[in-house]
Structure formats: structure tokens, C-alpha cells
Automatic annotation (TrEMBL):
<dbReference type="InterPro" id="IPR022429">
    <property type="entry name" value="Ala-tRNA_lgiase_arc"/>
</dbReference>
<keyword id="KW-0067">ATP-binding</keyword>
<comment type="function">
    <text>Catalyzes the attachment of alanine to tRNA(Ala) in a two-step reaction: alanine is first activated by ATP to form Ala-AMP and then transferred to the acceptor end of tRNA(Ala). Also edits incorrectly charged Ser-tRNA(Ala) and Gly-tRNA(Ala) via its editing domain.</text>
</comment>
<dbReference type="InterPro" id="IPR002318">
    <property type="entry name" value="Ala-tRNA-lgiase_IIc"/>
</dbReference>
<keyword id="KW-0820">tRNA-binding</keyword>
<dbReference type="InterPro" id="IPR018165">
    <property type="entry name" value="Ala-tRNA-synth_IIc_core"/>
</dbReference>
<keyword id="KW-0479">Metal-binding</keyword>
<dbReference type="Pfam" id="PF07973">
    <property type="entry name" value="tRNA_SAD"/>
</dbReference>
<dbReference type="GO" id="GO:0002161">
    <property type="term" value="F:aminoacyl-tRNA deacylase activity"/>
</dbReference>
<dbReference type="InterPro" id="IPR018162">
    <property type="entry name" value="Ala-tRNA-ligase_IIc_anticod-bd"/>
</dbReference>
<comment type="similarity">
    <text>Belongs to the class-II aminoacyl-tRNA synthetase family.</text>
</comment>
<keyword id="KW-0963">Cytoplasm</keyword>
<feature type="binding site">
    <location>
        <position position="705"/>
    </location>
    <ligand>
        <name>Zn(2+)</name>
    </ligand>
</feature>
<dbReference type="InterPro" id="IPR045864">
    <property type="entry name" value="aa-tRNA-synth_II/BPL/LPL"/>
</dbReference>
<keyword id="KW-0030">Aminoacyl-tRNA synthetase</keyword>
<feature type="binding site">
    <location>
        <position position="709"/>
    </location>
    <ligand>
        <name>Zn(2+)</name>
    </ligand>
</feature>
<dbReference type="GO" id="GO:0008270">
    <property type="term" value="F:zinc ion binding"/>
</dbReference>
Amino acid sequence: MGKKELAAMFSQNPDRYYKVALFDQMGFQRRQCNLCGKHFWTLAADRQSCPDHENYGFIGRPPTSKRLDYVSAWKETEKFFAKNGHEIVRRYPVVCRWRDDLYFTIASIVDFQRVMNSQVVFELPANPLVVPQMCLRFNDIENVGLSGRHYTGFCMIGQTCNADAPGGYWKDRCIELDYGMLTRGLGIKPEEVTFVEDVWMGAGAFGYSLEYFVRGLELGNAVFTEFEGDENNYRVMPNKIIDMGAGLERFSWVTMGTPTSYDCCFGPVVDKMLDMTGTDRNAEFLSNYFGAVASKLETTGGNVKELKAILAREMGLSYDQLARMVAPHEAVYTVADHVRTLLFAISDGALPSNVGGGYNLRVILRRALSILERLNWNNVKLEDVADIQIDYLGQMYPELEEHRQDVRTILGLESGRYTGSRERMNGIVASLKKAKKSSGELEVSDLIRMYESDGITPDFLVEQGVISSVPSTFYTKLAELHTSVAGGGTEKAKPVRGLEGLPATELLYYEDESIREFDAKVLKVVDNGKYVVLDRTAFYPRGGGQEPDTGEISGAKVVEVTKQADIVVHRIEDGGKLLHEGQAVKGIVNGRRRDMVTKHHTATHVINSSARNNLGSWVWQNSAFKEESYGRLDITHHSALSKEEVQKIEQTANIAVRKNLPVDIRFYDRGDAEQKYSFRIYQGGVVPSNNVRIVNIDNWDIEACGGTHVRRTGEIGLIKIVKSERIQDGVVRLEFVAGEAAVNYMQSQETQLSTIAQALGSSREKVLESFTKAMDDAESAKKKLRIMLRTVAETMAKSVSEQAKNLGDVKLYSTYDEELDEDYHIAVGEKAIEIDPSLVYVALVAKGAGMRVIVFAGEKASKRARAGAIARQVSAKLGGSGGGDDRFGQGGGRLKEKIKEALLSAEEMVVAAKKAS
């Protein structure tokens, strides 16, 4: 049974599911649509079809005398529900940190959904409540700005209520309130309101719903979530939930009657952008055109291009004439929407990038930039548009002001990157124009590949004349490629079997972290003594990036500790003969290891906040690892860190250490913790329990964390950041040592410095001067070597061409070299493709702990396979990254065990390119 069958089942018993007191009180009649069969409730005696088949009748003639712009519509809504006993809750972040299955908050009800044991539970901070929740969705990007009503970011007014908790109510009161909001709050006449029966399913629960419409426009949907499970196996929920979601944009639009919802919802943003761009305002034409698009879009299956062609004929214009007339307005609306979405996302800690949810943000950012570029609107800067948005929306969302500069920084940086890539993009476009004469129009898959590999938007290709228009499915398909949440690639340890029925382990390390010895009883011995479960333990299990304790249990060596649900499992090395069920045992934790891991864990918190304070509010913990000898923290940041930035982070962290700040650890109800400390507590990811352990370092850093920590930061002693690298787009890794490990590192550095000074025949005080001279001498020797290489390169290049593998009209020479360096292979490779234009030259050169990838493609060969693309693929096989242009590519990686596979991938790529051609 699916949604259709559920709807039929609910409709067969309308008095049970859909009829409410208001319908009897006001005289609403239930009718069945003569076009689609849906059931609806109306006061209009002559209405025979449901609003799904009704054109928008409010554009140019709103059904109310009230005129409410975006902010005013919210204030009216807020006033109405507050007066009727609802708590007005501040919006939750658009970055959905409390769910590990979502990147972004896609609906207001998501604010109050938590996943526990694969089941969704509802946790409301007040009952009943209303929230003006900004939501992000990227499934309709093509229509944004064009349809008059589609957005990537929108405000869903969430009216939420636990019907079975104090203050709760059910459907009679809900519909009474929603009807009152429309008629008294917005001033709409009763006969204008139509309720349509529907069904809602999702997130392990479902229920029946009543959508409400005015003049063809759906304003909201009241869902009565009564059942949990799925449609084939369900039961009534112990706490029924009302989930009413209404579009604030639509509340404003229906009262203003503007040609598009953008005109009233973006307020001064649209007006100022029209002024900045000198765009003509033809109110009558725009009203006719956009009113028709908004009303009739569904008749063409959501295809704006097809509808535009129809409207052009009706208006007596050619398609191109109409497109030119509306393009500036579509551009203003699109940029306004995309910037607003970016504003909220960046303010809430997200960054445009090439991975995860950041991918969708970069897609719309580059789309906006490409549109501005196509129309030559050089005076319009995204960061300036964001400022206008903040000035307007600050009345509703005052928290945006504190992120104004951060948003400007990120938008300016991304805009600069886009501009900086223009030269490379122009070169690719030139090649495409030549190829187009023989290959024809590019497919959507080609456009996606070009965006993925080179960041080229189809809007840019339209501007350059490579394609005639942006395919209607491009942005949707692109977004779909990056909607799944990260984490699926992590291989999890197999659970230990045979633990069924055991009680939860008493966790002594939470009662007192100083415990190193304890008495316990063996509850279970599994797998011939390999695994042991005790009734209580002080051994900390692996979790949250913290490595586990080791030690002994009555002489049996503990080498690994894990946690399955509420049970701690100890892996024993050769301990099967020593321990048995029911035995009283003594556990001894390796104190030195625990202390060092604990200091690294607390140092992780300190460094994380130090990085955020020095870099920007967009810094979040991406992942972390804490071991006995070192720690690793991955943070979200837009660029690689400079030496000066790393030093500032380290200095600030050590100031926190020297202040000897107290580390307070307490358990809170999850909702209380979120409201008290905000969603910043989720640095380490989602907490799968409603009992949250908060680690508060004197308000310096506050996180939900289950790890072990020092009592005061002074116990850490010293923090030293030993390495910083950008490991992927938008993520920077900091490796560090703390406490005794930091002292050991400093002593090792001191020893190495003395050794270097001795080797240079210098004192430590003058080692830099001596080193500089040695480097100058080395550079001089290098220059002589390059001259010699140029002399022998031609001879070696001829040999390469003779040894190359013949792949038809393309040759491939590939090698792994541990002796000759990259200078050699660059000289020989460059000469080889000059001698033989059909040659592809691939060299993997050993360099330190990793490898350097060098790729050349001759003029003839590059038409089959680009050097940059080969370098990228080979580097990826080696666990790294690479790139380049048609002729030359480079990169690198560290997985030396993948050398053969990497070289084979180069050959496969050349062969595949030959077949494709």
C-alpha cells in the first residue's frame, strides 16, 4: 500500500480523518473534484474542481485589503499565534547538524526530529510552538527566478504541537487556528479558502493532511502525524504530532498580488538591483507574463522554456524577443534568491566547496556569477547584494548582522576564484567551439562533466555561444549527484555476537575519570576468550575519534575496547584460559596512555575554538583523531593556512592552556542543551541520545562530547601544531602534539637542529645563515644539471618514443622511477612529445613518502586524451589529486601499493578515449 492507497483509505472515512469542527460551524461542504477525483472542502456552492486546476487569481487583485511584505507577513503571523498561546521559537540553522542523514534543513518539522535507534522521535522545545524556519532545497534550481515562485531558500512557518502533551491540541483546534490566521490575520474572506484532503509520509511516520488554498495558491498544509512505521506495518503514535507548514513567501504574495512572489519577498533587494542594473520596469507586461508563468507552469510539466514559447506566441512575439525582455528580471530574481540562500548557509557555518552540501552552494554561487557576467553587470557584487539582504531581513533574523563580514569574506573569495579561472575556461571554450563544428550540441552529461572537472557553468557556455540555452534538467541532475550525506564509505567493525540479554555496562570512567584500577565481574566470555564483557569498567572504548584504553584484566592483556549499544566489549590477547564467566576480576588501565590521549582530546577542543576565533565563524570540526602520541583535527576552512595563521592558532590555544581554565562536564536533556548552548555543541557530529554530555571549557569551547578530558586546561601543559595541510576542498587538517608528546617533539626538534648545525659546520645560532649558503650552492648545482639534462633529453626522448606501447594512432610510455627526479622527466617528457606528437608520457616519480605524477600529451595524442585528465585520474588512484591542461598535467599521491593500478588506469583511459572518438 502506497500513498495513493492510503489516501483512498483515509477518504473512505472522512468523518474520522478529515472532518473538523470548523467545517460544521462554518458550513464547509465536502466535494470530489470532477477533474482528478480529489476530495476538498469549500464554502463556494458552485465549485466543482479542486484548486490544483485553478489559475492564480490573486495576481493584480489580491483577496484582502492588507498589504504585507515579507517581514510584515511574518510579524502578522507571529502576533496571531503568540496571542493564541504559542511559543515563538527562533529559527534553527539551515545546516542540519542534529541529523546525520541531511545536510540542510529542508522543512520546519526537521527542527524537532531526532533519530534514535533508526527511529525518528519528536523533541519540541515548547508546546505548542511556531517557528519561522528558513529551509534550503536544490531540486528545482532551473526554475528559480524564472517561474515567479520557486526558491532554493524559503521560509516555512512551522506550527508544531504534541497533541498528547500539556498544552497540546489536535486537528479541530489546528484548523480553527489556521483558518483564523488566514481570515483574521491576513484578512482573507472565508469563502476564498478551500481545504484539500491529502496524505503525508516520511521519516518513519505518516498521517492525513488538509492543504489550504486561496485563489489557486497553496498557502499551507496541516499534517496530522498519527501513525508510526510504514504504510504496511504501522501503529498509532504514543504522541501524535501536528506539523503545519506554511510558506511565508506565499502569505506575503497573496496579500500583495505582485507579478511574482520575488517582488514582495525580497523587498528592497529587487528594487535596488533593478536600479543598479538600469533594468526597465514595465509593470503591466511583467504582471501579464509572470502571472501567466506562475499560473500555467504545471501545464507544461514545470518546463519554463516550453511555456515561454507558448506565451511568446500568445503575446505576438518571437521566443528570442520575449526571452530578451524578461531576462534582466529573471536574472535579478535568481541572484536575489541564490545570495539569500548563501547568506543563511554561510552564516550557519557552511562553505561553498566541491564536496557534500557545500557542492550545491558552489553550484548556485557560480550560477549567480555567470548570470551577472552574461549580462555585463560588473557593478553588481554578490557581497553587496548580501548586505542589502541583511539590512532587510535583520528585522526577522537579527543574528545575520553578526555574520555580515564573514559572508562578505566568503562571497568575495569565491567570486575571485571564479574570475581567476576565466583564462583557463576561455581556453577550454575555444577548443569546444572548434570541436562543435563536427560533434554538434553538447549533452547534459557533457555539461555536468565540464562543471565537475573545470567549474564551467552552462550559463557561461551560453554567453560564449557554445550552446544555445541551459538544458532544463542540468542543475537538478547536478544537485542530485551530491544530495547523499557523507559517511557511507566508512567501514565499520563487525559487531561481536552473543551479547544478547546482557545488562548495560556501568561506565566508571564517567563516574570518575581518575580511576585506573577497579574490581568487576565477568558477565560474558565470547569467541574462545577473545572478547570479554564485565559488569562495570574503567576502560574507555573507541569512539568520537578517541582511541581506546589498553591495560590488563587479572593478567589478561586488553588490546582493544569497543562499545556496542550500552555494552563495553574488551578484546583480549591470548586471554581465553585466564578468564571465565562469573569470575571476580581486577582491571588495570594503562594510566600513562590514558593521560596522554586525554590531553590530546582536550587539546582538540582548545585548538578548534582557537581556529574559529582566528579564522572565522565558518570553522567547524569536520573530524578528529586522538592517539597517545599525537592528535589530528580537520576543520572547515576555505583555503590552505599560511604559516602566520597556524602560528596564531597555536599561540591562542596556548594562552587558553596557560589560563588554566576549568573544564566542566555535565549531562543535559538534549533539547535543553541545544537551547542553552546552540547547535555549536555538535562539533563531533550527531548525538544518538537525548541525554547529552556537555564539555564546557569555561565558555571558551562548549561541545557535546563523550570523551575523556583534563580537569583544567593547565594540565595539558603545551600544544604544538606540527603540520597543516588542505586535505580536500573546504577542509584543512591540523596535526598537533600536546603534553608529554609536545615536550618530546620539541626535544626531537632541538636534537635535529644540533645535528644540522654540525653537518653544516656551524653553530645553532648561525644555522640559518649556513643553510642559506648551502641552498644557494645547491641551486647553482641544479642549474648546471638542467643544462646537462637539455643536452641528453633529445637522445632519451627518442628512446622513449621507440619503447612506447602502440595503442593504434596513440602511443603510451609509462614508468615508475625511484632514482631520477621530476626535473629529468619534465625535460625528457617535453622533448618526447615534441618529437612524437602521438605520444602520451606518464611518469610516477618517488618523492619522500609519496609520489609525483608527471604527464605530457603530444598535439595529436591530446585530441584523444588530455594530459590534465590523465594526471587527475592517476593521482586519484594514488590517493591524491592532480590536474592540468591538454598538453601537461601533474599531481601526486601517497599510496605506493597502488602504483601498478595507477599506471594501468592511465592506459585504460587512453584506450577508452580512443574508442569514444
